[in-house]
């Protein structure tokens, strides 16, 4: 029986394979979509939502107007804006409706998913595919020893963190941590 450290190291191996599956050109397009947006909105469901919330937070901290769909202070989306959907299947009902509405209101749409041929994938202007296992079968042929969609969700978080670093480089933000701390929560 493996201990937690050995299991964590096995998880890292899975994540490496998952992240190596991402097309670098699509990853670059994703960063460019964010850079071109007037405002960035993120949405997801379950643990995927938690991962993209982290993306919105980091984007805000480096100077973007970033919002999480469903929060009380989230404004209306419109032309010039970008909706980023984190969805393993690309078929989650509420997320499909949000994607359709975003397009109707003239926003661009980016999807990070296992299934680029999904309903949301077909609507999206930018799709980043992550090869990962999920409980919903979208990652057919990919297996994981982890429960649920852990592999996708963890890869989603790491990819989003990497995209933020790429955006920092493209914006030539100097002294990143000082810039981040200017907007970091300070009421805690």
Sheet with the most strands? Answer: 5 strands, parallel
Number of helices: 7
Radius of gyration computed on alpha carbons? 16 Å
Percent range for β-strand residues:
5-15%
Strand order of the largest sheet: 2-1-3-4-5
CATH class: Alpha Beta
Measure the end-to-end span: 41 Å
Question: Residue share in helices?
Answer: 40-55%
Low-pLDDT stretches are none
What's the total count of β strands? 5
Q: Indicate the mean pLDDT.
A: 94
Whole-number count of domains: 1
Cα shape: globular
Q: Which structural class matches the secondary elements?
A: alpha/beta
Order of helices and strands: HHEHEEHEHEHH
* Fourth CATH level, the homologous superfamily: Glucose-6-phosphate isomerase like protein, domain 1
CATH topology value:
Rossmann fold
CATH architecture: 3-Layer(aba) Sandwich
What can be said about this structure in brief?
With 188 residues, the chain is α/β, with parallel strands linked by helices. It is built from 7 helices and 5 strands, in the order H-H-E-H-E-E-H-E-H-E-H-H.
Q: Which helices and strands occur, and which strands form pairs?
A:
Blueprint: H1 4-20, H2 24-36, E1 40-44, H3 46-61, E2 66-68, E3 82-86, H4 93-104, E4 108-113, H5 119-123, E5 126-129, H6 150-171, H7 176-183
Parallel strand pairs: 1-2, 1-3, 3-4, 4-5
Helix pairs in contact: 1-6, 2-6, 3-6
């Amino acid at each position: 029986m493996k201990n937690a450290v050995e299991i964590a190291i096995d998880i890292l191996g899975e994540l490496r394979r998952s992240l190596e599956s991402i097309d670098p050109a699509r990853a670059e397009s994703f960063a460019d979509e964010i850079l071109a947006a007037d405002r960035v909105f993120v949405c997801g469901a379950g643990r995927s939502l938690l991962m993209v919330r982290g993306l919105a937070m980091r984007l805000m901290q480096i100077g973007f107007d970033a919002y999480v769909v469903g929060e009380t202070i989230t404004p209306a989306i419109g032309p010039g804006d970008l909706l980023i959907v984190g969805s393993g299947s690309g078929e989650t009902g509420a997320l499909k409706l949000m994607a359709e509405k975003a397009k109707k209101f003239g926003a661009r749409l980016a999807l990070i998913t296992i299934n680029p041929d999904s309903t949301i994938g077909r609507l999206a202007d930018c799709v980043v595919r992550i090869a990962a296992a999920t409980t919903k079968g979208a990652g057919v042929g990919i297996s994981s020893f982890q429960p649920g969609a852990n592999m996708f969700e963890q890869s989603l978080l790491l990819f989003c963190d990497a995209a933020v670093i790429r955006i920092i480089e493209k914006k030539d933000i100097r002294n990143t941590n000082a810039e981040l701390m200017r907007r970091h929560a300070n009421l805690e």
